[in-house]
Write a structure and sequence with these properties.
Shape: globular
Helix content: under 10%
Radius of gyration: 13 Å
Strand content: over 45%
Number of strands: 11
Distance between the termini: 40 Å
């Protein structure tokens, strides 16, 4: 059974940091690129960051570049998203997703999704 389980979300003040984790099981993790997306209430699910299968190349949305860092540990079947200098606009449900092909900014190209972890940033 394929599973992606996010964790690490929470409520923080602006300027704070969180480290999100995405633990994968039920498929060959190293064969998949991984992306993080986020969705605020009433808005579309937007691309945040992605990482190639080997972890050598990363991509970021302009809104998070310089503040967020995506990484992965294929030995642990886990992807991380370090988020720093949080802003109220970062408040959203954060999802990780797995893509059998290459990395993509389009949510429609991802094969598997987690249930999300909530990040709430207060000013």
């Amino acid at each position: 059974q394929v599973q992606l389980v996010e964790s690490g979300g929470g409520s923080v003040q602006a300027g704070g940091s969180l480290r999100l984790s995405c633990a994968a099981s039920g498929f060959t993790f190293s064969d998949y690129a991984i992306g993080w997306f986020r969705q605020a209430p009433g808005k579309e699910r937007d691309f945040v960051a992605s990482i190639t299968r080997g972890g050598g190349i990363t991509y970021y949305a302009d809104s998070v570049k310089g503040r967020f860092t995506i990484s992965r540990d294929n030995a642990k079947n886990t992807v991380y998203l370090q988020i720093n200098s949080l802003k109220p606009d970062d408040t959203a449900l954060y999802y990780c997703a797995a893509n059998r092909g290459s990395t993509s900014r389009s949510r429609y190209t991802y094969d598997y999704w987690g249930q999300g972890t909530q990040v709430t940033v207060s000013s």
